Amino acid sequence: MSDEDDLEDFEADQDDFEKEDDEKETEEGEDYRKEGEDLSEDWMPNSLTEDLMKEGLSLLCKTGNGLAHAYVKLEVKDRDLTDIYLLRSYVHLRYVDVSENHLTDLSPLNYLTHLLWLKADGNRLRSARLDELPYLQIASFAYNQITDTEGISHPRLGSLDLKGNRIRMVTGLDPQKLNSLHTLELRRNQLDSTLGINLPKLKNLFLAQNMLKRVEGLENLSNLTTLHLRDNQIETLSGFSREMKSLQYLNLRGNMVTDLGELSKLRDLPKLRALVLLENPCTDESDYRQEALVQMAHLERLDKDFYEEEERAEAEEIRQRMKEDQEHEAEPDHEEDLDQSTN
């Protein structure tokens, strides 16, 4: 597959993501927020039972040496559950969905050492802490009451979803213990800093709808391809570095970037192809699109629109004039040197 094909696939993926971001983000948040409105209520204890297990179990697979069989998938969504103690006995489970209940404790899952996939969205969890689960690859704890990122250390975890929680600071994410993590979702939290996300294998980072004022501590994310920072309070574009050599898509929509000169700080991103700056004050400037392309010759798309060849040619002329002006300014003043030597 050619580089052009790769880029087309990448752009298609980002278009799909933006469309989903615009159309579904609000609906999803409202659904869980309605459930969240009842978090202060006292729920009657309601334990997971054998009958509910029978209803929710599926996917019969071989276990152990291949001579025995067990159901490995469980779905018990929206059952008003307050505890899942019974799961301690179902050690062969690999896929578990306990979303939309009233759970405050997931510790019974520590016994499921073959667990591959976990979804616990829309509960009453205050922590995502679990013992190390050696095969866990996908984990979602969206729309709970989680306040920190401690206790998450699963060596094969590839995707971690913590959106819609109450996390103020990222701590405890050890790159040595999370060396497979490629996607981290932290949208809709209370983050005021991007520090603590030192995960070199990370490819996709979603930090939209927090309280961020700047980008910091992400300089060494050399594998990062997608960075989503929509709807924060970012004013300056400092914090990006040449080490972020894989970054292709950067969404800064709905921030507070006023000065077009800030775009020059993105010049060191060699693979940046798509930049979204809608709903920033700088987009009101008449030469906004042109200035972005002058600063970043490799940019393919700004906001929703691809650059035309005419725009590229114009930007290249401006860059050449700027280069000539700089060279002229750097030349020594020969007349002044002659006067000085005569005196």
UniProtKB/TrEMBL annotation:
What is the protein's given name? Leucine-rich repeat-containing protein 23
UniProt entry tagged with the keyword Nucleotide-binding: no
What residue ranges carry the coiled-coil annotation? Answer: none
Subunit description: Component of the axonemal radial spoke complex. Interacts with RSPH3. Interacts with RSPH9.
Got a GO cellular component term for this one?
cytoplasm
Q: Does the keyword Signal apply?
A: no
Function in brief: Essential for sperm motility and male fertility. Plays an important role in the proper assembly of the third radial spoke (RS3) head and the bridge structure between RS2 and RS3 in the sperm flagella.
- GO BP annotation list: flagellated sperm motility; radial spoke assembly
Location relative to the cell: Cytoplasm, Cytoskeleton, Flagellum axoneme
Keyword terms = Cell projection, Cilium, Coiled coil, Cytoplasm, Cytoskeleton, Flagellum, Leucine-rich repeat, Repeat
**What's the main place this protein lives?**
cytoplasm
Q: Where is this region: Disordered?
A: 1-43, 305-343
Cite the Pfam families for this sequence: LRR_9
Q: Which InterPro entries match?
A: Leu-rich_rpt, LRR_dom_sf, SDS22/Internalin_LRR
For bias type Basic and acidic residues, the affected ranges are 315-331
